[in-house]
Specification:
By secondary structure, the protein is α+β, with helices and mostly antiparallel strands. The chain has nine helices and eleven strands. Strand 10 and strand 11 form a beta hairpin. Helix 5 runs antiparallel to helix 6. The termini are far apart. The N terminus is likely disordered.
Length: about 325
Amino acid sequence: MTTATYGNKSDNPVYTSGQWKKPENMRNLVSFVVLMVCTLGIYFFYWVFKTTEYANRDRNSAQQSPLVQLLLVMFIPYYELYWFYKTSKKLSNLGEPFEVFNDNSIVTLILAIFGLDIIGAVILQDQINRIEAVRSGAGPNTTGEGVCRNCHATFPNDVHACPHCGESYKKPFTQTVWFPIVIGALGLLLAIGLLIGGIVALSSNAELTEDGSWNWDEITSGEEAAGPGYEPSDIDELIDENSQKYGEVIETAPGRWALVKEGVVNTDFTGVAENANGIWYLENGYVNFNFSGTLTDGKGTAYTVEKGQVVSQKAAE
């Protein structure tokens, strides 16, 4: 039988074949990231509580109430920046007796500044995993249990051979620290993409844009189309003739047509108006060549519009 041992500076016995168990505070980083993403960050707050509790093992710095730290992270803007920095320092102190010299305070602080808390959390949890691995007698690169494909024995996953039968072993990429970081980054990009997509969808379906103009991406009624101060009869009057009451549709610049009255664009008008070239849909006084859809006036007449021009109309029955 092959025996593998690791030396450490703790009072715990070193690892011997068949006796090593995964420490309680060691978390699988893949499951860790999945929980972060699937719970929409709720698991992050639980982890902050438990990690603050764990970091209090550092007797060289002031003890902090896990509950108070959790509430501060949840409700005080940007407090997590300080929390990441301070907790990293405490974990660095805890790792020093076990020769786990990882001071990630600056790295996690920068990540938190840019909203990459999930990646900072993975780095800190990996640091805890390394400390716990050495404390338990395993090597510092242990991230969990390995399983021998030959005899199915379990052991720290940073060994190169099964301590029970000698079968060669290599830690899979899915158990390295880089895998959850990659997954976390992809999940973050996906969340950002969905957020941006949602914002774009909401803005495109809004009735009014930021500059106060109407947005026509959906079929709407004449009442919805017109906006404040619109009278449904405006459309009927302008269909029959270029009523001087509202102005006439003329080209004010190359490719730019507007309803002009006494030399001024009638920006109070939204509806359909006729000139010698046809019938057009105008929005705030200008022909909207980007609009295609159906408009209905206050009397039930429907106008089919393609790229700003009315191509057909159907009177109410």
